[in-house]
Amino acid sequence: MHNVNRSHLSDKRRAFVPRLLLGALLMGLGFTVNAAAADTAFGGTALIKAAEQEGKLVLYTANQLASEQDLVAAFNKRFPKVKVEIVRAPGSRLATRIETEVAANKLTADVIDMSDRGLVTSFQDVFADYAPPNANLYPAKTKQLKNLWPKTSWGFVIAYNVPSGVEPPKSWKDLVNPKYMGKVGIVVANSGGSTWTRAMFERQELGEPYWTKLAANKPVLYPSGAPAASGIVRGEVLLGGVQSNAVIPSIKKGSPLKVVYPPEGIPVTASAAGVVKTAAHPNAAKLYMNWSLSQEGQSAWVTQGGGFSVLEGAPRPDGASANTVLWIPDSKEYVSLRTQWIRDWDKAFNHK
Amino acid sequence: MENPSYGFLKYGWTAGLILILSFLILYPVLMLLYGSVSIGSPVAGNLGYDLSIKAFLDVVVDPSVIRATWNTLVVCFGGTVLAVCVGLFFSWVTARTNTPLRRMIEAVSIMPLLIPPLVAGIAWSILGSPKTGMINVFLDVLGLDWELNFYSSWGIIIIFGVYYAPYVYMFTSSALKNMDPALEEAAAISGVSTFKTVFNITFPLIMPAIIAGTMLSFVVMLGIYGIPAVLGTPAKINVLTTYIYELISGAPPLYSKAAATSIILIAVTAIAVMVQQRVLKGKSFVTVSGKAFKPRLIDLGKWKYLTFCISCVYLIVAVILPTFALLVGSFRNFLYIPNIESVFDLSAYSLTHFTRLFSNSLTLLSLVNTLKIGVITAVVGGLISFAIGYTVYRTKLPLRNFIDIVSTLPIAIPGLVIGIAYLWAWISLPGGIYGSIWILALAFVARFIPDTVKSLSTSLMQVHKELEEASFICGHGLFTTIRKIILPLIAPGLISSMSLLFILSIRELGSSLFLYSSSTLPMSVLLVNLYEGGDIGVTAAFSVVQTLILVVVVLFTTTVARNMSITSKA
Lengths: 352, 570
Prior knowledge:
Shape of chain B: globular
Oligomer: heterodimer
Largest interface: A-B, 64 and 63 residues
Order of helices and strands of chain B: HHHHHHHHHHHHHHHHHHHHHHHHH
Radius of gyration of chain A: 21 Å
């Protein structure tokens, strides 16, 4: 339906009022662009009023704290009366906490945003029936878990230290080139869902021997993304795969790095976020989810947070072209291959 | 306690203590044991019967566990040896010699304790990373072809030794300060050299303090994650804590295997405590008796400049260099330091990170929460630890050895794992404790009972029984005796234990991770969130703020404790 309606609009107008358009499309009103339609994109006036009356929501998230705070600030520009309280922890720790709170009947979250799709399955029934107004603009691969939506997407890119004078890499395959011997930093595969996605991408898309070749190049291993990114900034290593959102915001502030979007693809981890069934602030929860998944919310994540979005028509981070390929893992393989492949990875890199 | 009129109290008192320890320690440890054999989250009231000893068997035969255990023992043993040498040297220098500026040395020598292990790890990776570490950049300028590599077992051992020396120091310095110098004076009169006196008289006299400090620093090192994670991972040196961290970071998190692995650590600790009890059994370590005394200071002559210089080297390594690294990290826009000139390029510095830190609404919230939790922990934990310490070290009550072992257990469990045990054990507590700051304080009290009891033990063991007996003979009751005799005598020890508790609770991360809520977020959790977000600048800025708060606390309590010390009153 949206394609038909879209054709009636000029490109110029689309660029100015994407979010209004979206609301209008979903209401089936065609060209009507007004405040009411904007509200509709976020779930309608009634929902907004109810959310404002609730006044707050509690968000459990595996997203980086500063990134999520930036998102909340953008959300509060539009909805200043709805405060968002954040509990942030990495995926596995968050999952454990949620499982235990559910078992003890003490879950305080209104919205849960998990980074690791594999971890959600054990408590999937805590989520209420929910779909955002623009549900049809999300790819099917990210909708396989019922009631859960890709609120935040993380993508692995290559970053390199500019003042060190290292020759800029062009592709993932470049990292195994002996000229980068000992200069590449790598986050261990088992660090979390996104590093596992990266490892899976490497083996499936770059070929079975890629790990062995990369390991032969004597890379420096890091326990998580943060020390890896800071290792490249400090010149301890000169290049390596890192999450775009860990480096792009700092590049904007002047950090001496540059990002390469490898042509083989960007391994992307889409989060699994939903509204909790027992939410004390169900309307505020829904509103925050609707906004986060809207064109406005996704754009904020990409342009300010340096992340990726799987929403149709969402922008790409600075420097990425429309042709940049996003690689989304098969969600069944994501779970079934994990244990064995992580073990293989550890072996290949002599880790543990 | 031998006074028969208090016999009826004996069993009630013991039972009460065991009850408190059961709730604070045994119950969570049992939940952990249960967790190591169960599948899924063991929550009180929801205990399943899905048990399996697979996790245990996996651990026993797993070569990575064996390798990690070996690495752990190597770095902890090496670190302890170094910590004992350094700690003992400093307590002797500051308490018993006329080394210049010893009060300053005293204040600064416990400062490494204030730096959270993760921050210490970060600071030393900035300083000692093989290629771009600031020390290596500096050596390069000097034209020296040396390369220091702290990403190694030696690196971990040195940092362990430097950062856990204060544990040994705290134990031994109060013992040295409150020591009756009669034997030393006798040795001096008989013409024995200072060196011989120190090793043949002074150190043997304070042996319980040395052993307690040694054992404590060893078991604390067993449970440290931050330092080996930052310095060990790039060199592929896995220790048990980093191994456990990876187990619980995977999907699904393998808590049962992590719990099973941490039981190795608990077993090592239990053995260490039993060895300590066996070694100290039947020995008297009374150095404070009914006689008035004032420990004399040893005149080192010109050697005092040597001790002063050694102290300065330690201060540079333990305090000045890492503080400098943190300051550079917090004021420098980006930590890329290609050469020495760039360190002095002022345009690379600004207040950006501090501005961002304080514009974050969570910063102030976490600061207030942490101070509240710290005060509750220090007061409640100090009192409970005093009760335990008194029972273990000054009474002959039944089951006191059991109380000793139980109260030492939490130290061996890595923070990450004990955090989950507290969550499992206490989430169902009534009265809305879960989600309030009380549950965090409770966890900290439980987690730091071992540190506090051990640090009190020195003061408690030193006081001669004749002082209490004199009080009993004068017709005073037990509680009056404790209040009028024991408490004033060990007040400096109690105050420094409470300040230790406060410091530890400000630093503590592991047990907070699962227990905080959006409104009770403590500083340590915010710090790790900033670190995990990859923002080293803001992390360094926050570390600087945290360290400043701790310095203020320490200066305050050192002053208070010094004014209360019996040596200063004599």
